[in-house]
Amino acid sequence: MATPASTPQPHLSRQRVPAAERRDALIEAAVHEFAQGGFHGTPVDRIARRVGVAQPYVFSLFTSKRELFLAAIERGFELVAETFSEAAAAFDPVGAPPDTDVLTAMGAAYIRLLSAERDYLLLQLQSYAACDDEVIREQVRSSYARLVAHVGRLSGAPPERLDEFFRHGMWLNVAAAMGVEDLSSGCEWMRAEATDRPQPASQTAR
Prior knowledge:
Elements: H1 19-41, H2 44-51, H3 55-61, H4 65-90, H5 102-116, H6 118-129, H7 134-155, H8 159-178, H9 188-196, H10 201-204
């Protein structure tokens, strides 16, 4: 009786990940690592380990840590722009509550984004902190200006409304970073902090 031929086993080999996918994964890892450590305090090796590659491989896709940081910043601005676009597209003026418009809808979407994607909020703050670097400062300025223009096109709002929208957005950033919902002088948490904590010695000595 003939012995049945053994079933050929598939050749097991590690699948090569395309460079484009690795680049995307590195940018996403950079978002989270730079959010925590900032531009100067985050070693590239930490980002590489998060993706499972060696540090030299990172520099085969990005010429420098600065280029990777800029790519992460740009992803953050793109996420905010997409959030605003989706909110504007979904806004229905007929069914909207009174005294609301497309800017109100975009603001509400931004609040939800700050809650769901805290690392992107922190990265945004880190990008401003890194603006002592001229190259980073130029890109942050450019990205911010393009975001303002994008909101202007989506909303058709006059410059005064746009200014107020972005001022309030910065207010929201600070509140979200501190984990509070209100920054009004005299709000409940501010009164509690001011009365419950002892003043610094430099103030009590006066």
